[in-house]
Amino acid sequence: MAILKDYACISVDSRDQHLPMVPKFAEPFRQKKIRGVGIHEVKVPYEIQRVSAPWHIALITISGSARYSCKGRSGLIKENTIWIGPADTSYQYKATGDWKFISAALIKSNNREHIEGSITCKMMQNDVSHLVNAVEAYLSESTHCQDGMSQEARALASYISLCIDREIASDLENDYSRNALTLAKVWEEVNASPEASWSVSELAYKAKVSVRQFQRVMKKNYETTAEGMLTKIRMQRSQELLLSTDLTLDAIADRVGYSSVYSFSKAFKNYCSIPPGTFRTQNS
């Protein structure tokens, strides 16, 4: 179902409470790039849909369940799970009955690139009751603080931020390992067909990650960019063809994905420091 406009349906007997984020004691949230946190105890009907938002949304379910729809996928958000809808993506979620959960709006940052462009729905790594207690204590403490300088509230904000950040990052290294394996398969495909019109966005799509994350994982695993790896594969293949065949430069250019001899020769000279014809002559 296409989501065409923002929409919210919240029953009158639902609790939909957001934590104070402006006072000085809320600084730990800002340091962790958490835009907002809320605690919700809702009843049917309860439904939220967004066309797009510039931040990720994380829902940590304490009890009950909800159904979600995002990026053409749908499913159930269960108790003791964290569901993350990525930024700049339309999504919808609605309660299936009584549902208690904590929400967190997460600003995009480098350490969250692994959740960009994909839906996350996984079991919590830690006991969610501690997070709930901290949220309730923060709300209580903030109502008694008049000058925004409560050390107790600041400490609770630090703990809440840490709990949320820990859950989001808990499988980051596993994601990098999975991405490394996926990357290897993607480049095997490129190596088999260097003549194809490969683009970075297409390669990222094949790896099932955002372009930003694709470049980040490329740098981590190969110490180069996607463009650099594509050029390397094409240049290595062109060197093989120059030395093992009598194909013309025009034919070789076509076989390694260049639209003209000029663009191929320019790329080859930039990579090898000599023109392709000279390379063939010197190594024949």
TrEMBL record:
Q: Does the keyword DNA-binding apply?
A: yes
Domain HTH araC/xylS-type, first and last residues per copy:
184-282
Checking InterPro entries in the record gives:
Homeodomain-like_sf, HTH_AraC, HTH_AraC-typ_CS
Q: Which SUPFAM superfamilies match?
A: Homeodomain-like
Q: Which UniProt keywords apply?
A: DNA-binding, Transcription, Transcription regulation
According to the UniProt entry, its GO molecular function terms are: DNA-binding transcription factor activity; sequence-specific DNA binding
Pfam families xref list: HTH_18
Report which superkingdom the organism of origin falls in. Bacteria
Q: What is this protein called?
A: AraC-type DNA-binding domain-containing protein
Instruction: Record the organism.
Output: Lentisphaera araneosa HTCC2155
